[in-house]
Amino acid sequence: MSRRSSYPSPLLFKPQPSAKPIPGCLGISVVIVSLLVCLWLTITSGMGTALLTNTPVISVPIANPFTNTHLVTEGHATPSTAYTVLGKPSLSAAFIDRVLDHAQSPARETGMALYALSLLYGIDDAYALAFFQHESRFGTTGIARVTLSLGNIRCSAGYQCVKGLLTVALFD
Does pTM top 0.70 for this prediction? Predict the structure, then answer.
């Protein structure tokens, strides 16, 4: 006699592979509504027109310093003339001497000469001093130790030059 077991055979139960849930009507409707809302916002805000006509969506006005043609006439920079090189000296000769002395420049005590050149050529001496600092750290580095010049000016025919740069000898 064979005895039947009340337990089913393990071969009768096959494990089902886990299936990924398919988005139902609710998931699809949420996506469609979201797309429609984005489309509506784009059209009503004018952004759609901007995108289609290749115009900027946001426009920020920026001041152009290169359109300023006014001269500094009082020796003081004003907001409308803050970036112009032309004008009267804005620094005193004593201040220039203090800056050069602090930097241990070989051009010490030439503040009055720089001030006078600023008056003669109508260039604010603050810009000349800034170039001098940028080009050679007030004559303490680079070829300016040899050329004795405020800046590295390329050589021109008829002038004395060193390594392709003009020797001006503004300071000794």
Answer: no
pLDDT in tens, 72-117: 444 445 555 567 788 888 899 999 999 999 999 988 888 898 899 8
How far CA 21 is from CA of 27, 52, 88, in Å, comes to 11, 39, 79
Distance CA 105, CA 91 (A): 18
CA pair distance 67, 63, nearest whole angstrom: 9
Q: Are 170 and 152 in contact (CB under 8 A)?
A: no
Domain ranges in the chain? 86-166
CB atoms within 10 A of CB 68: 13
Contacts of 152 (CB under 8 A, 6+ apart): 135, 136, 142, 143, 144, 165
Inter-residue contact 153 to 165 (CB < 8 Å):
yes
